[in-house]
Write a structure and sequence with these properties.
single chain, alpha+beta, Arc Repressor Mutant, subunit A, Chorismate lyase, six-stranded antiparallel β-sheet, 9 helices, 32% strand, disordered N terminus, GntR family transcriptional regulator, Chorismate_lyase_/UTRA_dom_sf, WH-like_DNA-bd_sf, DNA-binding transcription factor activity
Length: 252
C-alpha cells in the first residue's frame, strides 16, 4: 500500500502513528483510510467485508483485521455477531460534576434508566470503612444498578451509603429513579464536595455480563467519595462505564 506524500486531511493521524524508525505500520495506514470511510458512510452503515477492504486498499486481510479491531476498541465501529461490522454512533458525554447521572444525560437529550441488581444492608470491610470514616463491620447500604441511556446498557454503578445517616432510605427510595434526587429532596442531603478518580480497567466476567459487553473491551472506572458540610463522607460510588460508548468532560 502506498501512502501519498502530498498534503492530505489524514496526514495528521498518519503522522501520529509513525514510530521512531520512521516507517508507518501498514495496519495504521489502513486504519486512517478506514476513518475516512467511516466518515463517508455515516452512523449505522455497514462496513465492507474484509475481502472487499483488502482488495480496495491492496493490503492483507490481517492488516484490515487489526485496523478494524482497534476501531472497535475505540468505539468507532461495532461488531454484531452474524450481521457484520457497522459504523458506531457518537460516544455519549458524561459530565464530571456534583450533578447526578440522570441530570447529566437529560442535558444531552437522552433518557436515563436503571435496572436494580442489589439493594441490601451489609457490614463495611476495612477499606470501605476507612473511606467513609466508619468502624470496620459497621452497617452500610449497598445499591447496585445497571445504567442505561435511551434503553442501551452503558454502565454498572455500585453505591455504598452510611446506614446510620439514612435509616429511612429503604422506605422512600425508588431504585428506578435518581438516588441523588432522593437524597437531596427527601432526605435533606447537602452535597458540599466529592473526590473522583477515573482510570481504565477491564470488566470482570460478571460485570461484562451485566453491562452486556465484551470482557476484552476497555472500561472507564469512576471512583467517588462524597461528603456533606463539615467534611463527613456519606457515600462511596464505583461506576463502571463502557469505554467504547462514553467519554467524560469537565470545565476547568
Amino acid at each position: 500500500m502506498v501512502v501519498p506524500s502530498h498534503p492530505h486531511p489524514a496526514d495528521g493521524p498518519v503522522r501520529a502513528g509513525i514510530p521512531e524508525h520512521g516507517r508507518i505500520p501498514r495496519y495504521y495506514a489502513v486504519k486512517v483510510r478506514l476513518l475516512e470511510l467511516i466518515g463517508e458512510l455515516g452512523e449505522g452503515a455497514t462496513l465492507p467485508t474484509e475481502r472487499e477492504l483488502s482488495e480496495r486498499y491492496d493490503v492483507s486481510r490481517a492488516s484490515i483485521r487489526q485496523a478494524v479491531s482497534e476501531l472497535v476498541l475505540e468505539g468507532k465501529l461495532r461488531r454484531r455477531q452474524g450481521s457484520g461490522t457497522f459504523v458506531a454512533p457518537p460516544k455519549l458525554v458524561q459530565r464530571l460534576s456534583l450533578g447526578s447521572y440522570t441530570e447529566s444525560l437529560r442535558q444531552e437529550g437522552l433518557e436515563p434508566a436503571r435496572t436494580l441488581i442489589t439493594l441490601e444492608h451489609r457490614p463495611a470491610d476495612p477499606g470501605l470503612a476507612g473511606e467513609l470514616q466508619l468502624v470496620p463491620g459497621e452497617d452500610v447500604i449497598h445499591l447496585e444498578r445497571v445504567l442505561l441511556a435511551d434503553g442501551e446498557r452503558i454502565g454498572l454503578e455500585s453505591t455504598y451509603l452510611v446506614s446510620s445517616r439514612f435509616p429511612a432510605l429503604m422506605d422512600v427510595f425508588d431504585p428506578e429513579e435518581s438516588l441523588y434526587a432522593c437524597l437531596r429532596d427527601q432526605l435533606g442531603v447537602v452535597f458540599e464536595g466529592a473526590e473522583e478518580r477515573v482510570e481504565t480497567v477491564l470488566a470482570t466476567p460478571r460485570e461484562a455480563l451485566l453491562i452486556g459487553t465484551n470482557p476484552a473491551l476497555p472500561m472507564l472506572l469512576v471512583h467517588r467519595v462524597s461528603w456533606e458540610p463539615g467534611g463527613k463522607p456519606f457515600e462511596r460510588v464505583r461506576s463502571l462505564f463502557r469505554g467504547d460508548r462514553l467519554s467524560f468532560s469537565t470545565r476547568l
